[in-house]
Design goal:
By secondary structure, the protein is mainly beta. Helices cover about 5% and strands about 25% of the residues. The protein has two domains: about 140 residues; about 120 residues, no CATH class. Pfam families: LRR_RPS2 (PF23247).
């Protein structure tokens, strides 16, 4: 294989390829850092390698190598703590498919490089397929304040019920539009957490949504009533043909929307 991947081509091919299987990297047992340097690369699959990072965040020029990337699959990379830095995400505007599976050490998909740094508002604008599996240590975007989910027609749920404590804890803006299979907006067990900071909620053109707020988990059995105080200031719900109810219980005495205009 030699000492360098410069101008690497697949074996048996006379012309440069737009995708490459990096399975032979398994043989490099001491490899700790992998720098991708293929300017026309469209597909990457990393499987069972022990790297700690894929793109060194100090090399701005490395961002140019992934601008055409449409598919990224990362499977069984046990030493990865994160996948992207905040500075590199903007270079992934063409990404359509993202799969992250069996990465036991991964804690965040995207990390902020500077303290207090804001994430891009449009993360992966062309993404239509997202698969996440076997990530037991993941904390979902603890510093994210704005989240826009649009045209994700196969998405049935946005969050699972088992998110770790810091996941999405600072979210202030959530817009969900054009989700044909989406059944509900919030997991019932985590509704109180999301509403602590959420100020704007927009849900539009989601054909399968039947209710927006599931209040059942906020009812505390055998305890004195506790009213959750929502920070929600704007609620925009429209074009939901199967909507049966905004909330499935009377919110009085359970949830306060005191910031919503009358």
């Amino acid at each position: 294989m030699g000492d360098s991947f410069v101008q690497w081509k697949g074996e048996g091919h006379d012309e440069p390829r737009n995708n490459a299987n990096l399975s032979e990297l398994k043989l490099l047992s001491k490899l700790s850092t992998l720098e991708i340097g293929f300017p026309n690369l469209e597909d990457i699959k990393l499987s069972g390698i022990n790297v700690k990072m894929i793109w060194p965040n100090q090399h701005i020029e490395s961002h140019l190598y992934i601008e055409k990337l449409t598919t990224l699959i990362v499977d069984g990379c046990g030493n990865l703590n994160y996948l992207f830095t905040s500075s590199i995400v903007g270079s992934l505007a063409q990404l359509k498919t993202l799969e992250i599976c069996e990465c036991k050490s991964m804690e965040e998909v995207i990390i902020a490089e500077g303290e207090g740094e804001m994430m891009s508002k449009m993360l992966f604008p062309k993404l239509h397929s997202l698969k996440l599996k076997g990530l037991p240590r993941i904390v979902w975007f603890p510093n994210l304040e704005e989240l826009y989910i649009m045209h994700m027609h196969r998405l049935e749920m946005i969050w699972c019920d088992e998110l770790l404590a810091d996941s999405f804890s600072r979210l202030k803006v959530l817009q969900v539009q054009y989700g044909k299979q989406l059944l509900k907006i919030f997991p019932s067990k985590l509704l109180g957490r999301f509403l602590q900071n959420l100020e704007l909620l927009v849900v539009k053109n989601c054909d399968s949504v039947e209710e927006v707020f599931d209040l059942r988990a906020l009812v505390r059995v055998s305890e004195a009533p506790v009213v959750e105080r929502s920070q929600l200031r704007t609620l925009d719900i429209r074009d939901l043909p199967n909507l049966k109810q905004v909330w499935n219980m009377d919110p009085h005495g359970i949830l306060s929307f005191y910031n919503l205009p009358a």
